[in-house]
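@channel sequence for tomorrow's demo:
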Amino acid sequence: MFKSFLASLGVGAATIDLILDRDVLTMGEAVTGRVVLKGGDVEQLIEGLSVEFRLASSYKKDDSYINVNETIQTVQITNQDFMVYPGEEKEFPFYMVCPALLPVSSVNTRYYFQTDLEIKRGLDAEDRDFVEVRPVGIQKNFLEGFRALGLVHQEEGYTGRQNRGYQIIQFRPTEWLAGEFDELVFMYQPEDSSNHVSGYYELDLKTRGLIGFLADELDLNEKKGRFMFAAQQLMTIEDATFHIQEFINKNMKGLITG
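structure tokens (generated this afternoon):
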């Protein structure tokens, strides 16, 4: 009786563990593994077992950060009631296709699977497994084009589907243009990146001397606007690299730095 009471509080209760075949996922591809359920110190009635694929991120708005938490997909392992006995172990196969056109894993945007075990008259058990999600298609080529130019993610955030689903990436030049920018930002909507990649950009060059100081005060060292790369411009990583470099060079012209 005392063990049953403790199990209802989660002490000595059944446990759950999602074991994935790999922890790096590619959008549009299958995700496989197994869910392992282990009985605790007493028998317990299980009322449901499910796995949620979730996203956690944040983005800066004005002077504060807004957290974003979304359930991307839910996989119902079983919704039938069953008993699990002390020391018993059960395994359930896990299968899911990773959705396409998601925000990519980055500085702030992270993905995880949350496995939920519903226990009657007890504290439900859960398990979290973090994974990396990689893009495909023109979204992959678009992001790899920046990487090929030595532009790495410095800051990043995702606004969430309720706020138009923009992924905002501030790049830091490590080779080409190294030391020339205060800010180099591109924001786009992954959900709309099947035939093109579009959104907004901001180029903010570092300034020097008195003229540079005045240019900074008057925003003459920066440029903002919209961008759009068609699918044919992103057919390969080499194509993407060329067109991104061409776009940045073109929009840097005329900016005053000192």
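heads up for whoever presents: The radius of gyration is 24 Å.
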